[in-house]
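Moderator note: this is an archived Q&A kept for reference. The question asked for a predicted structure of one protein chain; the sequence and the answer are reproduced below.
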Amino acid sequence: MQDTRLYDMVKSGRFITAPGIQDMITAVIARKVGFDAVYGSGYWLTASGLGLPDAGIASVTQMVDRMEKLVESAQTPVIADADTGFGGLLNVHHTVKAYEKAGVSAIQIEDQEFPKKCGHTPFKRVIPVEDMVEKIKVACDARSDERFLIIARTDVMQSGGYNAVEDRMGAFAEAGADILFPEALTNTDDMRRICKAVDKPMVANMADGGLTPIRPASELEELGFKMAIFPAMTSLVAAAAVEKALISLKQTGTSLEGPEMFNFKEFCELIGFDKVWEFERKWAKD
């Protein structure tokens, strides 16, 4: 059954803040904290699962598997990065079907050439707007439930400038996209302009280390956005903590001198050991 909670939040106009999730440990911690939705980042799920860059190398099958596990672990609506739809129109059709079956609540498709590149890195090339419009129409037609949301992203800012972004967002809205994603805007003036220019919910990409200035949710809402994803924060924080802990271990020879750790007993409960132990108490033989 489709998880419609994200659809309901979007329709209500409620602002949504979604942290990026790179692995299932982060997913269960986000569940504990209580976010209304999470973002399945293609960059970071590929990095954590395969040790590869976000350059169109991961296959649709690999990403669907990761998204399905994320849905199970997070137990909250998942906004899922699907790159370009992993190819042409037929690929988009099958990608939408697979992601919807995996249980995600929204699928994000971008207008880059395939294979794609991370939106905040160089050498991106976009497809003609007419081709992306066709992808959006195919995506809308492929879903079995209209509450499964289609997010259309454009990466045209670096090659075409703001006017090209506005033109594409308008075309994508007319094609049927539920949410629009203007990637890699570089200043708050353009962020405000795009939200006023097109009457569709807009998502802001708060990618730490990227091209767009990081703004708090309250300011993004004031600018006109309805959703903010923070795709890199948890991954970069985790990488910094791991590096610090490993340096300490190498220097001191013990884990007792490193940074503060998450409580092991609590983590066992988060990951589901309490249910394992309950089962064993019920069925274990003396």
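Archived answer notes: The mean pLDDT is 94.
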